[in-house]
Design brief:
about 375 residues; 10 strands; alpha+beta
Length: about 375
């Protein structure tokens, strides 16, 4: 096993990690804000501690949010620009769900700026913006669920459940004052009570009907070019090149010059994902300058986009008489483009670039080019 952690993969992990941390910080900020409004305190937890934590955690969430945005844009795997972070619904990549993220960013920035300028803009203006900014939290949750490629993972589902439960409990605890007559503005309290029930139910319903269902990547608005062979979302964390059974049962001699020079073929075959979502197999015939056969297997963890996050791979290429003459692995993965590193029995190495045309079915076509060179120009190249 050859472990590889390249620049693009590191950015992907940084994007997902900072996004989840930002959600946790926003949740803590909302809960502390509710405690502050409720004027809760104890001998060991005076009110100024709640106020200080609320302010500092809100500012810290902005820092993590900035890193989240920066790593997403710099990565460049998805077509997301700097303006997409603040101007909603303009990105071609999952426009609705990424747009909700931009809305959350704008609301959070408004909250932070008005809090810092509270003494100058007046309490009434600050309070109006502050209440509006509470919408930042559910919008951010929907953004993460709709855009995140790891929504189906158990740990992410648990994290979302904890955040959702914490805010719901805080809201309901605050509304308990209504029953004892301690809330002066009953209209606002009733509205908050309705939201405290409707919002969690709506989020859970959306999760069950959307991101947890197969094919969410396409329905969410992922451009086909960004759907990395059935929506894989990261460059490989580990590349494995297991020996094929065909390597020990070769039918006979093969012309050593096959695929030795530059070649350009067309591919026609199938792309099938396993029932448990942990494997994608591309299998097809080559026609053109060097007829033959290509088989690529991607293994990994199921992703929220309806595909897999690749952790291992194998690839085989050869003529019909010996379809596994060249063997190796996927060296890079970028949307519907793969870079393969393959080796012949005599040690000769070739680089191959596979450009796929995906139509949403199990049928796949494309082009296969390469020769005695390193596959380049694709994500994950070192």
């Amino acid at each position: 096993m050859i472990a590889t952690v390249n620049h693009s993969q590191a950015l992907w992990y940084l994007t997902r990690g900072t996004g989840l941390v930002t959600l946790v910080l926003l949740t803590a900020s909302v809960v502390l804000g509710i405690l502050q409004v409720k004027r809760w305190s104890s001998e060991r937890w005076p009110r100024f501690v709640t106020a200080g934590l609320h302010k500092n955690i809100s500012l810290l969430s902005v820092v993590f949010l900035a890193v989240h945005i920066g790593s997403t844009v710099v990565d460049g795997f998805a077509p997301i620009g700097w303006l997409d972070a603040v101007v909603p619904f303009r990105s071609p990549y999952r426009p609705l769900w990424l747009g909700l993220g931009a809305v959350a960013v704008d609301l959070l920035l408004a909250l932070v700026v008005t809090s810092l300028l509270r003494g100058r803009i007046g309490y009434r203006a600050w309070k109006a913006v502050h209440w509006a900014a509470y919408a930042c939290w559910p919008v951010a949750v929907l953004h993460g669920m709709g855009t995140g490629t790891d929504t189906k993972l158990g740990v992410v589902l648990l994290l979302n459940a904890v955040c959702l439960g914490a805010v719901a409990l805080a809201v309901w605890w605050r509304l308990a004052d209504l029953a004892t007559g301690r809330i002066a503005h009953s209209g606002a309290a009733v509205a908050a009570g309705i939201a405290g029930v409707v919002v969690p139910v709506a989020i859970v319903a959306f999760l069950l009907a959307g991101p947890l269902q197969p094919g969410w990547s396409q329905r969410a608005g992922t451009p086909r070019a960004s759907t990395a062979v059935a929506a894989g979302t990261a460059a490989p964390a580990a590349v494995v090149a297991p020996a094929s059974a065909a390597a020990t049962t070769r039918p006979g001699p093969v012309d050593a010059t096959l695929f030795a020079g530059t070649f350009d073929d067309t591919l026609a075959g199938t792309l099938v994902q396993s029932a448990d979502g942990t494997s994608v197999t591309i299998d097809g015939a080559l026609a053109g300058s060097v007829p033959g056969h290509l088989r690529v297997v991607l293994d990994g963890q199921p992703s929220g986009g309806g595909g897999i996050v690749m952790t291992a791979s194998s690839a085989a290429l050869g003529p019909s008489a010996d379809p596994a003459y060249y063997q190796g692995s996927v060296r890079s993965l970028a949307g519907d483009r793969l870079g393969l590193a393959l080796t012949a029995p005599d040690g000769r190495r070739i680089g191959v670039v596979v450009q796929l045309n995906l139509d949403g079915s199990t049928n796949v076509t494309g082009t296969v080019t390469g020769g005695q060179q390193t596959a380049s120009g694709v994500r994950g190249d070192d």
